[in-house]
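ok so heres the complex, two chains, lmk if somethin looks off
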Amino acid sequence: MSAPETHMMEVLATKAEARSLSFYYGDFRALQGISMTVHERKVTALIGPSGCGKSTFLRCFNRMHDLYPGNRYEGEILLQPDNTNLLAPGVDPIEVRMRIGMVFQKPNPFPKTVFENVAYGLRVRGEGSRRRIEEKVEQALQDAALWEEVKDRLHQPAYNLSGGQQQRLCIARALATDPELLLFDEPTSALDPIATASIEELMHDLKERVTILIVTHNMQQAARVSDFTAYMYLGDLIEFGVTDELFIKPKMKQTEDYITGRFG
Amino acid sequence: MVALMIGVLTFAALFVDMAIDGVGRLSWDFFTNYPSRRAGQAGILSAWVGSTLVMLTTAFFAVPLGVGAGVYLEEYAAKNWVTDLIEINITNLAGVPSIVYGLLALGLFVYQFGLGQSILSAGLTLALLILPVVIVATREAIRSIPQVIREGSYALGATQWQTVRYHILPYSSAGILTGIIIGMARAIGETAPIITIGALTFIAFLPPAPVKAEPPFISFEWLLSPFSVMPIQMFNWTSRPEAAFHANAAAAGFVLVLMTLAMNGLAIWLRYRLRRNIKW
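and the predicted structre for the whole thing:
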């Protein structure tokens, strides 16, 4: 939670940029031509009432929609520094997901051991060296502030962990492969307040090295963790700006109504 | 509950009756003797060896085919009318009377492919018969895996095959194994299709051994050998006039029912064991 002036003084680098991005579930146009920038090593929050398209938008970044038939993208998402359009027909969604990690709404550890959960991303990349996998797993668990709690039970099933630990395990799993951008889809909505606080604290530490894009339905959470906030409504991006400014002095009437609780 | 009890009690009564009739005939010799004209010396050696070999052949064909088809339909096939058609067909195939499979096998395997009245023909026939059971069990098991697990795997950059290999198959293995065993338990008791393709009712030799003393040590001659199976042996004995053979039939039936129950028990145990390690 840095003060707004620090943002103004730093030079902001762009990590990803959506350009007139529209998304269709069959004939239904769920995103209405969104243009928005995700700044490097910052936390960007997407807020808005249920059904506003914030999760749909998030899932465009790792091409999650490709898993289901009838979905279609229009426009582009440019990932920097190489200026790759993630949505281009020639781009393999698997390549995209190798660079962009995701943490889901409900902790979804695989029914395997703690170790295997974190090692999985390395294994699918063909990492064969046992030693390197062990190093990476330990590093990722440490980065996810979970190492101390699980180091003695790495080879026990992951479902023995508490909900908050499971979610941190999912974060470690995503971190193990060094993603450039990490997507969080309402990561704390299934967690208690203490676990939520630990995840938020973790996000604050993580942004030193990875860009974070988070969907949240909790405005206080957006205010606490993010540097930038985007307010979405009915598939449109209504307002995007520095979090502290957006919450204190929103430019749009709609945004103000939403954040003051008069609407949504 | 009452309906259930009627079923269970009827089965128990029949089973006990059969056990009383047959248990006197159960001895080591009964398992190691060939059938004989003298009821007291007759045994089920050729029948249980035949049943075992036919089951192995059945599993060899039905398991990869059935699991493969189930995985394909759930994970790969596009959701369109072709898939729907296949789906309806599989459901219907499960309800086709087994004698129809026997007739198909007689025409196709025995004559068209020239496989003869062999263990291979029987195995293929029973494989066809239980294929729908295996496919349906595989699909049910796969469908019970939450979508978030698949998404979690894909989100880490896994390919579809990696997702199937590391997640879908391991997590559905309990359900798939249960389906396979239940299918096999059904196949082991099937008589009609096996008779149709021409299994022998009286056979006093074993198929050639699969392992040999001289190279290449492994032989598949047994696949083309004539054979008998447990239910046919029973059928043969019950159609004899002498009461002593009826006791033999009861004993063989007792063994067959025990085998079926053991397989079902194994299915339940495996399901329990494998499920214990999987929670979402």
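quick notes: Residues 1-5 of chain A have pLDDT under 50 and may be disordered. thats all i got rn
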